[in-house]
Amino acid sequence: MSFLNTLEGALNKGKAKLKEFQGGKPNQQPQQHQQQYYNQPPQGQYPGAQNQYPGGQQQYYPPQQQQQQSQYYPPPQQQPQFCPPQQQQSWNPPPQSQSPYQSGPPPIPSWSKPQSPAVNLATRPPTHPPSQNQPYWQPHFDASLPVSTYFIQETGAHGWGNNESQNYTNVPANCFFTPHQQLVLRGIVNTSAPNDKYTSARLVSEQRFARQRGYLSATLKAPCAPGIWPAFWALPAEPFTWPNDGEVDIFESWNGDCVNHSCLHWGHFNGEDWNKHRVVETHIGDMPHREVKIGFAWQQDEDRNGAGGKLVWYLDGRPVMKANIPEGTRRISDYRIVINVAMGGNVCQGKLPADGTYDFVVRELAMWDTPNGGWEQFNRDFDQTVEGKAG
């Protein structure tokens, strides 16, 4: 038995060495290296890899979404830019998707407008003063109130110094408050009518600016069409001499040109005073399709009557024009708001609007003790903003 046991042990050792020589251990498979895959795209290959979107953070799209197109247009290279002072300034903030009438307009058909183009919401700037800054005057556009609660309704069809065609009335068809705190000035054109083919409204605020320094703000939806001239501006309280006592144009557009004309007028009409007008023209390409937020800030010196101080005009939160308060003008605290929709005349180059209705919608109208960002920001805006060109 011992010999057989010895022989069996030797055979087992031989089998084990044979397996070891063949290079394997029982029940062990050759090791495989699994490849890891990452779906991180190369820089700039997919939408959002380089573009900045609302919120200020870059967005990443995995491969299965790489064909999805961004909803923000136009692409960066097509966005209009601010231009030097000698040229038109231009930008294109986002359109407002909400109708200017939150509960529907009165049952008169409005002038039709094409669809608003989409724009990059990241360009939207801050607009109004912070909530802790309370207005010292803010009219409540209650539909149960007459417009005369807050405004003088000027009337007449005498051309208004520019050979205009409209007859300003005080009837509700041309001017009214809506149930959602909106003021509407409605131009109505009916060329088949025997009289008053062109009617509209012109309002002057009962409230004066009434402060040595302050800020005026409003949200506007302006009509844009040939022959139409909507304006939001300011004049000294009557009696006054024009243009000697001054005029401030905050928002006005002519003939549907989609250009806002910020202006300051004073002085006389003669050869020596040709340069006593300051103008900056700002192109707003989607003006017919959205609201525009306007602002005007003034800071007048105490020790000079009718002169000394600074003015800054704002569009959608951006300063677009500055001016020093000219000598000889009335103090800004004595100015009143003027809102109107003119038709035809010299400014519209003799063009008259087609039949229809043209609505100038105003909301969020207010006067504040402090502009957006405070007076330190106002001074920075004044230092960095262009001065209007003579014209």
TrEMBL record:
Pfam families: GH16_XgeA (PF26113). Residues 92-109 have a biased composition (Pro residues). Residues 15-135 are annotated as: Disordered. PROSITE patterns: GH16_2 (PS51762). The keyword Kinase does not apply. It comes from the Eukaryota. Keywords: Lectin. It comes from Glarea lozoyensis (strain ATCC 20868 / MF5171). CDD domains: GH16_laminarinase_like. InterPro entries: Beta-glucanase-like, ConA-like_dom_sf, Glycosyl_Hydrlase_16. One of its GO terms (molecular function) is hydrolase activity, hydrolyzing O-glycosyl compounds. Residues 87-391 form the GH16 domain. Residues 23-72, 79-91 have a biased composition (Low complexity). One of its GO terms (biological process) is carbohydrate metabolic process. This is Concanavalin A-like lectins/glucanase. The keyword Transmembrane helix does not apply.
